[in-house]
Amino acid sequence: MTMRPPAEIGMPLDEVDTPALVIDLDAFERNLRRLSERIAGSPVKVRPHAKTHKCPVIALKQVELGAIGVCVQKVSEAEAMVYGGIRDVLVTNEVVGRQKLRRLASLAQTARVGVCADDESQVRALEAAAGEAGITLPVYVEVNMGGNRCGVEPGEPALQLATQIADAPHLIFAGLQAYHGSAQHLRGWDERRQAIAQAVDRAGHTRDLLARHSIECPTITGAGTGSFEFEAASGVYTELQCGSYIFMDADYGRNLDRDGAPTKAFEPSLFVWATVMSRRARTGRSSTPASRRWPSIPDRRWSATSPPRPKSAPPTSTAGSPSRPRPTGLASAARSG
Amino acid sequence: MTMRPPAEIGMPLDEVDTPALVIDLDAFERNLRRLSERIAGSPVKVRPHAKTHKCPVIALKQVELGAIGVCVQKVSEAEAMVYGGIRDVLVTNEVVGRQKLRRLASLAQTARVGVCADDESQVRALEAAAGEAGITLPVYVEVNMGGNRCGVEPGEPALQLATQIADAPHLIFAGLQAYHGSAQHLRGWDERRQAIAQAVDRAGHTRDLLARHSIECPTITGAGTGSFEFEAASGVYTELQCGSYIFMDADYGRNLDRDGAPTKAFEPSLFVWATVMSRRARTGRSSTPASRRWPSIPDRRWSATSPPRPKSAPPTSTAGSPSRPRPTGLASAARSG
Q: Which chain B residue's Cα is nearest to A117?
């Protein structure tokens, strides 16, 4: 069967098939520029996390506006990015299993593809795959910043693993991944600041320990949409992995800024355009087949320039702000029907 | 880029790329047979809901074992089923919008495709689309059974809509959809029994009202995995829409049976085969990129015949039962990498 895209270029909004993901391109580009503005003066580079969009077109736009490359979560995402034209990709996770390692090494023949490790057995498997493919693979030691998911502990354990990587013939020690995921959605500005201060201590201490053992640490990568300003100002981190800032979402929108008010650092730019399929006049009930993940935008947002057709719902947004302009561009991702 | 399937026929489990959805075919087929056994002696027919699997191969297996066709949630699912060989499909929702109605009517040129309505404007739109396509479309009046999502109220409102459908040249009044969704996960057996007793009253009352106005009601369709035994025994419902019974899930597994114990009507047959990508010996932490939707099965389930390779996780299941046999068949659905 053929899947038709829900929209074509130039199509008016009320002809777009639903459900459709709709990007407000102006807001999207403002978000990209705002990140650059917020870190102006800091030497950190931006390597946005592409798990937010998984879309090479968007990744290329980020690179065009200054990103040095992107992050991805897994090998298949790295493949999508490299085949889509991105030349520098970091897999921000461990990769396990012979098939995936072969794909990773094969991909690294055509682009710079970095990967994380937090165990000696992984380093051995990465070395074997890189050797088999005849490449040299950049490997980052993932350090546990307190999220207690992946990562070796800071200090000695990180030194041991970095030494093993540096000694492997087909691997290059590329730096530390020091992402503090569990700090991103701490509500208070000062809570996040303190959590990142600890991460900075741990990462800096580890970097200095490596230096004392003559292992240079060219990159310390981490940070997210909730905390990037702290890593950018730290003097320790060299690279930011923010992803959600391009679209924002409801939960990041509830983070408080320095002034105690919900953050205005970025604005929602991704919306779901949905159709109400049933509305009972007597009860005021309505049903839509679209996801409930996003809160609704009040009707009035849309009524000025684009009155909803009967039975058609206003778009729902990732952050529920009532005062955004209507979308000026479209990107389709949702399966229609 | 090419997406490789995570498994091929005959491949041992430990060569399957992860994440992969794994079906225990024996358990799956037992579930299909158990539904038939549970309703043996009742005249109701089975029209399983294909939203559970969205897979024509599975739908064909259900038809082979006695189902008269399948239900789907929306037009694109109906297309997948018809193009996959299913000859009788019911869209258990309202369909809104010219594009989707055209696709629906076009599909009804090659298979029996029914659809629900709960508003006069929908009936007019369905009539227009069916007339344009030169077909006659079976339309069901959806009746609100208490879930307060879609559906007209029982009695007079249903009669009005059925009359409008019966009078439309290109539509056939096919019956009532009387699905009581909010009763399915009521925990107690008696709670569910009472909720369905009310639904049976409403549906039966509406059917009798239609009969007094010379409108025959050939089908009353509804029921789910949590309640089907009550609808089957009602003498009012003629068709069951159970879907989840083929795989079961953790929440249905918490429903209590007549004896007060968690139901044993069906068994979990769908599992996620995942790989642990990081495991810190000191803390016992482990991380997997697979979904958290399903609870884990204890290790011992797998260790007897298929010891997990290092860094490989036991499959996680939809119901967490510790005593199931290992999978004997494989079906892939997850994106690998």
A: B278
